[in-house]
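> example.struct
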């Protein structure tokens, strides 16, 4: 695969950044793929002869057993090569709940949620004395982070570092105080972190925080075409050929105009911010690409990007013309979601934008599920809908690759912290259909879904192959591969708040809303249960009653039974009894739980405590359960084929730090396993 990265991008940044980008000599050509599609990397002498560099990448929802057992080998050759020939832990135990935000905070800091303050995707807001148990905040936000991430550690140690689409970024960690009296100490930590983020040699970008438009499909039904008028230069698009047609829509605060044209039939669309037939970008109509993505350009039928100025940054519109009838009576025009890249400094975001020119957080799964691309194969479709969805995955993959390549080759950073979400997005929606334990399992449906998974995981594997080539191109570099959790199929829903309601511990008002003035225990997000103690604003449970309320909440959860009379909650966890899990803490829970196979949860307080539900796949379950495990592997000239024992993901940041010769992050509780991975 060839990625064309614009040269000289570093000139956009401040001189310090440009110097950092130019300080390295040009990287040697990427290694040719081996038999497995990635570089041949052997343990050997000379690994310490050049300065060490590292790539640490998290593949969302990476679980080795699921890769090996639920996917054909030809879909994931690079993962299998890594697992079989790299230096790998038996498995890695992540955060509890095993969800994306807290699990990534562990990777970046070397500590669990009781230290980092990142406890869930949606979590409690601190300080406790200023917020109730119903006040939530995103766990992906930097404001909840209360521990030093590796990008700040590296910068403070004088190493250049790029955080590429990392969580809890790019803003200064919030270091939220547990109570108001802790604010002075937290303010000092914020100031130290802010100084590091404003220094030279640290580049952090994140596009997840701001989305100005969702994935969208336009058709003749949603946006009818009409004869084009008032377009400058329209004669160049008509000139005696088929009369141009137009439509328009709004993206963010901008109007966008589309001009459909061709010779004897309609074949192209021009998309512009003005009615100018010589401006904007062009896409040619082409059916969904069903060819093997290996060895060709990804997303090759998408238009060039159209830049939109938005408050505080830029967004990039690209379009894909999947269908256009010769007479213009029918069309399908897709564009990916538009996200605004934020950077730790404005010039960092500007340089990333100039290099990558468009980034998206995920594929168009929601559009696919809604039927916007047509019916899926298991509902009578001919595979076109799946092929269209896969092209949205190609665009996602291509843009992530461009960002990684820019950071590694143009900036030449010592440490690249990277991420890729596609495996999680695919298996959330589709993995459940191929799990035979699901009561609704169907062989015909499973076969068709599995083909979609195979083709999607090919792209995940290509992303890994690209990172392997980048690492192999730089002497002294190591590639560290990990993840944040696994995946589990579910078809029932457990509602802990309904169980607490039935036990009289949670009270609803006349509108069906939680009444905290009468509620003693609540699950604020479905992951755990909190006592509504007086330490929280509006709390009603005094310290002397906390143990009794906690025992009652535990009994309420354990009493729930499924229709067959079997327990729905199979185990409970108290933070003081399981310090190894890093649960609890100021923003965490008082009681955690495990559920029976096939059971997920919801924070809904209405309805029954347990009910049947549609097929789904997810995570968040106890991280010591095998399907929630993730991986931790290292690859490079210094690493041979080796398996070490199981690790906790608190080991990841300290291990990478030791490889680079820098201290572990300031708040890390995990220890480095570099020696074990190297066979020392």
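> example.seq
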């Amino acid at each position: 695969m060839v990625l064309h990265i614009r040269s000289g991008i570093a000139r956009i940044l401040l001189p310090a950044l440009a110097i950092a980008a130019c300080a390295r000599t040009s990287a040697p050509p990427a290694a040719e793929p081996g038999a497995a599609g990635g570089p041949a990397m052997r343990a050997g002498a000379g690994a310490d002869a050049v300065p060490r560099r590292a790539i640490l990448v998290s593949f969302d929802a990476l679980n080795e057993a699921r890769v090996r057992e639920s996917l054909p080998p030809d879909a994931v050759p690079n993962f299998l090569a890594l697992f079989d020939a790299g230096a790998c832990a038996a498995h890695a135990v992540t955060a509890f709940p095993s969800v994306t935000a807290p699990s990534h905070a562990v990777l970046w800091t070397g500590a669990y949620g009781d230290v980092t303050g990142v406890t869930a995707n949606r979590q409690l807001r601190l300080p406790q004395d200023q917020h109730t148990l119903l006040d939530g905040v995103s766990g992906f936000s930097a404001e909840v982070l209360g521990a030093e991430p590796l990008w700040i550690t590296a910068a403070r140690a004088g190493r250049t570092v790029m955080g590429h689409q990392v969580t809890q970024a790019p803003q200064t960690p919030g270091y939220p105080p547990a109570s108001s009296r802790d604010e002075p100490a937290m303010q000092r930590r914020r100031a130290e972190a802010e100084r590091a983020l404003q220094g030279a040699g640290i580049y952090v970008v994140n596009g997840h925080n701001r989305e100005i438009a969702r994935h969208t499909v336009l058709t003749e039904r949603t946006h009818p075409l009409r004869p084009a008028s008032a377009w400058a230069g329209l004669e160049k698009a008509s000139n005696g050929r088929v009369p141009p047609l137009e439509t328009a829509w709004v993206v963010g605060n901008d109007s966008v105009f589309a001009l459909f044209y061709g010779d004897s039939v309609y074949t192209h669309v021009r998309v512009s911010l003005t009615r100018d037939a010589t401006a904007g970008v062009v896409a040619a109509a082409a059916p969904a690409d069903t060819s093997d993505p290996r060895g060709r350009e990804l997303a090759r039928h998408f238009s060039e990007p159209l830049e939109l100025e938005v408050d505080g940054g830029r967004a990039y519109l690209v379009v894909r013309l999947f269908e256009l009838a010769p007479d213009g009576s029918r069309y399908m025009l897709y564009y990916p979601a538009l996200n605004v890249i934020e950077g730790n400094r404005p010039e960092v975001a500007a340089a990333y934008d100039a290099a990558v020119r468009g980034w998206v957080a995920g594929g168009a799964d929601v559009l696919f599920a809604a039927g916007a691309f047509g019916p899926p194969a298991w509902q009578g479709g001919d595979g076109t809908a799946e092929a269209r969805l896969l092209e949205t995955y190609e665009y996602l993959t291509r843009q992530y690759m461009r960002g990684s390549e820019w950071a590694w080759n143009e900036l030449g950073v010592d440490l690249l912290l990277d991420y890729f979400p596609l495996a999680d997005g695919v298996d959330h929606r589709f993995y459940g259909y191929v799990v035979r334990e699901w009561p609704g399992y169907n062989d015909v449906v499973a076969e068709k879904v599995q083909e979609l998974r195979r083709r999607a995981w090919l792209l995940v594997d290509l992303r890994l192959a690209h990172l392997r080539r980048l690492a192999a191109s730089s002497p002294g570099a190591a590639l560290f591969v990990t993840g944040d959790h696994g995946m589990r199929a579910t078809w029932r829903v457990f509602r802990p708040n309904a169980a607490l309601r039935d036990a009289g511990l949670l009270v609803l008002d006349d509108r069906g809303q939680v009444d905290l003035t009468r509620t003693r225990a609540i699950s604020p997000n479905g992951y755990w249960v909190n006592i509504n103690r007086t330490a929280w604003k509006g709390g009603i449970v005094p310290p002397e009653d906390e143990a009794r309320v906690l025992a009652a909440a535990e009994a309420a959860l354990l009493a729930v039974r499924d229709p067959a009379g079997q327990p729905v909650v199979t185990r409970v966890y108290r933070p003081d009894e399981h310090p190894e899990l890093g649960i609890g803490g100021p923003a965490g829970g008082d009681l955690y739980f495990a559920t029976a196979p096939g059971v997920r949860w919801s924070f809904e307080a209405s309805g029954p405590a347990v009910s049947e539900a549609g097929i789904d796949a997810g995570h968040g379950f106890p991280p010591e359960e095998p399907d929630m495990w993730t991986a931790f592997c290292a690859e490079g000239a210094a690493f041979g084929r080796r398996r070490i024992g199981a690790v906790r993901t608190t080991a990841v940041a300290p291990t990478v730090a030791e490889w680079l010769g820098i201290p572990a992050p300031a708040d890390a509780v995990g220890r480095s396993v570099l020696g074990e991975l190297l066979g020392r």
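> remarks
The longest strand covers residues 254-262.
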